[in-house]
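Before relying on records like the one below, remember that each one covers exactly one chain. Contacts with other chains, cofactors or solvent are not represented anywhere in the record.
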Amino acid sequence: MYFIRLDSTFIRHLRWSFKSSFSRDEAMLDNVQQLSIIMGQQESVFTEEELEDYQELTFFLKKEILHCYKRFKMLAPEAVSKNRNVRLPMATVLTLPELQVNPFCDRICKVFSSAGDGSMTFEDFLDMMSVFSDAAPRSVKTEYAFRIYDFDEDDMISVEDLREILNRLLGPGKKKLSEEDVEELIDNVMAEADLDEDHFLAFAEFEHVISKSPDFLSSFRIRL
């Protein structure tokens, strides 16, 4: 289980959970054999040139790209088998186990959807998995975290955005905070992070706070 936390230093009070579904240690046991099997299974799906392009545009190696395709195909085997470029509806993408447990799952889908409606092609899915991979740098992860939390998509995190974040984190089955506690928490976050005191968090302010979180890189991830 992994967490993104926002606190009195922005990152301690807000939690974002992800489940791990892939062990890199196990994958290293027989990489050559596994890759040859996967390449054999997918040889009619991607050309070598396409794999090289995907590798250049993501933070993945070729074998990881093929594994991403396998996971994408598992979401809708028949549809993907017929058309590798099929656009899967958000409801289908949300069956991915790591998204099912995430209170921001719809925002994640919409941010990475090239159509903007949460639906995804394989390339959208690959982009998402790449950004949440261990290889993605802090700057990229921070940019996407900001976009996910920016619910009204005005390039700022407002008091309303913070309230929505808290409402999602304190959803059904979780400890409830009083309205006074919620407002106090929002005030504390703004006092800590709103450096220009305009009641909004610009990206630079968000980035400044994220830089104080030593576990951000390890928590903002979905493992293959």
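The chain has 14 helices and four strands.
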